[in-house]
Amino acid sequence: MTKLYIANGKIENMNKALLSTGKNDWETPQDFFDKLNSEFHFTLDACANENNHKCSKYFTSDQDGLKQDWSNYIVFCNPPYSTKEQNAWVRKCYEEGKQTTVVLLIPARTDTARFHDYILPYAEIRFLKGRLKFVDAKDPAPFPNMIAIFRPDK
Predict the structure, then answer these.
(1) Which residue range(s) make up the domain with 115?
(2) What percent of the chain has pLDDT over 70?
């Protein structure tokens, strides 16, 4: 049975909406980042590339932010969107959040083990109203996003 939903005023096939584009590194909208940055004053973009980094200090995939120490930074992290990579990045944010402030932007998938094991008990959660439109995307994301904020005192 095919499920349908309405997006941008059109009826769409649900299966099509859930398929990956093959892209894994969606750039955070600058205005969205700027609002967060005015609150947190980030010093590290932990998961970026030469074209989409939001801080002067950033780790690329070659540097592998998962293997780096984040303890001397205030961290922004918009990790890859594949499930396997999300799991590793959420765990890393949780671990580093014991020592420093880490702000994680991810899809709001509250049914996942990573949400219940690493986010719900340990982070401040902010659900985004509406759908985020990433810089390099034609349309808004087909899923809701959230911010998880890890702090050493939590």
Answers:
(1) 23-150
(2) 84
